[in-house]
Amino acid sequence: MDDPLLPHEAEVAEYIRESAGIFTLRLRFRDPAVHAGYRFAPGQFNMLYLYGAGEVPISVVSDPLDDTLFDHTIRALGRVTRGFAQLRAADRLGIRGPYGRGWPLDQARGRDVVIITGGLGCAPAVSLINYIVRRREEFGRLVIMQGVKHADDLIWAERYRRWSQMAQTQVVVAADVGTPLWPWQVGHVTDFIGQAHIDARKTIVMMCGPEGMMRAAVGGLQAYGLPESAVWLSMERSMQCAVGRCGHCQIGGKFVCKDGPVFNYPQVRELLAVRGL
Amino acid sequence: MEAGFLQHGRFQALLDVLHGCGYRCIGPQVRDGAIVYDALSTCRELPQGVRDLQSAGSYRLERTSGLRYFGWANGLQALKPMVFAPEETLWRVQRADDGALRFSASRPSFANLAVIGVRACDLAALALLDRHFLGTAVADPCYAARRSGMFLVAVHCSDPSGSCFCASTGDGPQASGGFDLALSELDEGFIVETGSARGADTVAGLGLEPVTASQRDAAARQIDTARARQRRGLPSRDLRAALVSNPEHPRWEQVAQRCLACGNCTSVCPTCFCHAVCDSMELDGSAGAHARIWDSCFTAGHSQIHGLTVRPDTRTRYRQWLTHKLGSWHEQFGRSGCVGCGRCISWCPAGIDITEEAAAICSGSSDG
To answer: What is the ipTM of this complex?
Structure first.
């Protein structure tokens, strides 16, 4: 019987240190048939198993058409992710996935895209930005809004600078706490939505980050008259099984792992409004 | 379909047939002052002449002068632990000297269980668990292995406890389906109904007698009485709207003052399915295992993500339990997650009554 919970053996092809505490694992399945059959969409995630320690859900950040390797950018935060930080090329781990519903890229094609993220190296959004940047001509204006708590938290500063120099692309980075040489904004990223020059008739918004940030962003977007159905967000909850059975990821009647993690805003409007759900 | 009448003194013959078919019989028995399911070899182990006195925060057994085997409402567990084990290994992994990992699925050892004395509420709960663990594209293999081959002998409920409210949820006292055999226990014996072909095969050789009209009447009357005797009830079978519109009702805080967040309710609930995973490793580091273990939405860990406990207090955890059970279950499974067994009421050390809390919150008044 097909076992939905059984990992496949994978190996680290390359380990990239992104910043202190943040790293990317470039992976391949050991079984070529498994690797060849593996497909994912931006916004989906895998369950990564560290030998003896446990599993964690992590977004896939690489390009879905790159069939050589798939990448996970991870922050060393907990017992398992700190263990992953110790892995090196040729080390083994277990992978099962992909899971969940990714970003609505088909709907985004031909439209202006606004991506709002908060928090540190928000991986689901990184996969999205990379996807659009590699297919830039298929999309309209691109606005990337990234909020961080502290200026020092911004990883990939060089990428943001590069993206900001692309045609038809606007980058807004904001830190709650700035530093003397911080070249971007200081404040909540959602305070700057007014600067995004959104055309409500042809824009789709995709966001990911703390729920408070997303609530504030929705407020800011309403000033443009953007329809709620044009807003998509990636939710975060504890996920232990990834197949809608363990119950941890529930928010209202939704299982974030299989009904999400990406939701259309009207699907979760009432749920987002209640604290502690 | 009515199959016939089995004299009380011949009940062992039914067990013998099931044993003969290769089933491992499980039946209700008295252990440490409560009724539990355990391996059953003879009908003498059944709780004959026993009744249960249940109310909020209380479960007591009492001797009666009767000879019935099933003159009580329910024990502390339904069928849940038999299909969804409290703890079980899902897979194992071996690590070779070069670091290579080999994963292999773990399956429960195969035993065809025949469960005797299943209640209508328990069958309704089992149907819900089936939907959760089997009703998607890929079935849960461990659940499927335990569930397949399970033979269910229901007994219609004649003696509801003070905690029961299956009449209000529509799940009892009469079992309406999902069984292989269903029995109506009368003082002199059992009316036997079949619910499946294998159920019919099982009783074909038992030499059942014809059922008399008065036996049929007596069985129907005791179901009516069992329904009428229930004093508790939920305000409605669909409380979604009322619960969703009252997330800040002061009653949530009031119940949180009483609730110990111990998780007894989720453990005895026949439909609660939350489970955590747990990884372990052999001492020599050569192999590991990945297991699941029942979890409860009343724990802090249940809603923890890095740097945040989404439901930080008992108020939000009780609210999650009740709004899921009676509200969002409709969205997920097309019906409420409560089958009216009353276990969460009896086994709550604080005596919190789900029907009272639901009524208070759904009435909309702030002090219930």
So the answer is: 0.93
